[in-house]
Amino acid sequence: MNGARITGILLAVFLMALLSFSPPLAAERTDGKPGPGDPAPPFAAADMEGRNISLDEHITSGNIVLLNFWGLRCANCIVEIGYLNPMLEKYRGEKVVFLGVNVDAASPEVIKQMMPKMANIPRYTVIPDPELKICDLYNLAGAPLSIVIGKDGRIAYRHEDFAPGDEKELEDVLQKALSAGR
To answer: Among 21, 35, 94, 121, which residue is least crowded by beta carbons within 10 Å?
Structure first.
């Protein structure tokens, strides 16, 4: 073999080795779940009062969005709501929007009828998802699911399920997202 051919082979082997040790890019995710670094899938839907809610509108307004997927009979969802309500009050006046997507495939009327029976009722905007279109956009596997979307429209955080203490990590993410925008 001549020197140029050996150099070419060594270079190819080196590049293959380098690529095999590179961390995957967000777009290379294989689980289908939009996660940190991915653009947040846009949606527009009516809230419980019939007002149109647009994710793009919140993002172009410079808001950070906490998107929380929850169910009426989901014990961990209801516990998490008990932590999110005070967080909502803490960030009132900041550029943080809380949106709760109900995952029960129920009409607003059914949700309104059932919510008073819950131990913790969301004080933030609730979006019924009767056809589970928003759930499908975010590839919901189970609730609760909390997603923080930064001012750049990219997902900064995705956390499935909830246990007391998880709210601290969520709040850290919100603080970092707010700091990044100042």
So the answer is: 21
Tell me, what's the pLDDT at 48?
Answer: 96
19 found inside a domain:
no
List CB contacts of 114: < 8 A, sequence separation 6 or more: 72, 106
Residue 49 lies in a domain: yes
- Per-residue confidence (pLDDT) for residue 164, from 0 to 100: 93
The CATH number of the domain holding residue 103 is 3.40.30.10
129-150 confidence digits (pLDDT tens) = 999 999 999 999 999 999 999 9
Alpha carbons 158 and 36: distance in angstroms, whole number: 7
Q: Residue 181's closest CA among 34, 59, 42, 43?
A: 59
- Which of 89, 91, 115 is closest to 104 using CA atoms? 115
C-alpha closest to that of 86 among 71, 70, 98, 74: 98
